[in-house]
Prior knowledge:
Blueprint: E1 3-14, E2 17-28, E3 32-37, H1 43-51, E4 58-63, E5 66-67, E6 79-82, H2 94-105, H3 110-123, H4 140-151, E7 158-162, H5 170-187, E8 190-194, H6 198-204, E9 207-212, E10 215-219, H7 221-225, H8 230-237, H9 239-252
Helix pairs in contact: 2-3, 2-4, 3-4, 5-6, 6-9
Amino acid sequence: METIISVRNLVNRFGSQVVHDGLCLDVGRDEILGLVGGSGSGKSVLMRSILGLQRPTSGTITVLGQQIKYHKPGPSRCWGVLFQSGALLSGLTVQENVELPIALYSDMPLETRHELASLKLLMTGLSLSVADKYPSELSGGMRKRVSLARALALEPKILFLDEPTAGLDPIAATEFDQLITYLHDNLDLTILMITHDVDSLFGICDRIAVLVDGGVVVGTMDEVLASDHPWIRSYFGVPRAQRARQAAGRRMYE
């Protein structure tokens, strides 16, 4: 499997607190990698480091063969980001929010820009009737879809998702997982997803990366479940995780 994100010997330290201590991680092309860990384990810090938003204490990160240089232009046109809060601009309409990265990073004619933004909205399961609405007029699930449409606006090769199903009811969360899978399969996306949703971890992820003790345990779900680390055994041993595992197993044979 070709590596498209490579993290080597990453250290992130804040005062006396060491969040990452020599962490190494590879993300392969076209995989969905789920990132999980306890509070304070550094999930968001790791993602911000990869995006070039957080300067690590030491270590190197390479994305698509290009080493991340902090506070300098990076390969940002090659990736899209869905932040946990959505991060939509409240003063812009849905259409304007999705068009914004296109306007910033291309010289595309206005009409073409409109058409591309409309296409991205349709791809995420939204009706064009929402295009002229403001984020405050939408449900939480619809705002996430708009944020996803914006993340896809520049046709990225990599998609970063921060808690994409947080705050959604079980039906909406399942539909969002299905949407992620559909987009992954049809757009040849590599996806790195922070999530606490065990249904997502069991249902759509190819591999799981668990942040523990400043490092990472990574592998397929079966490989991670075979770990004897106490936190991993506790996290995946709770009844909810067991039910998600059983449901994922049933889907494989349907």
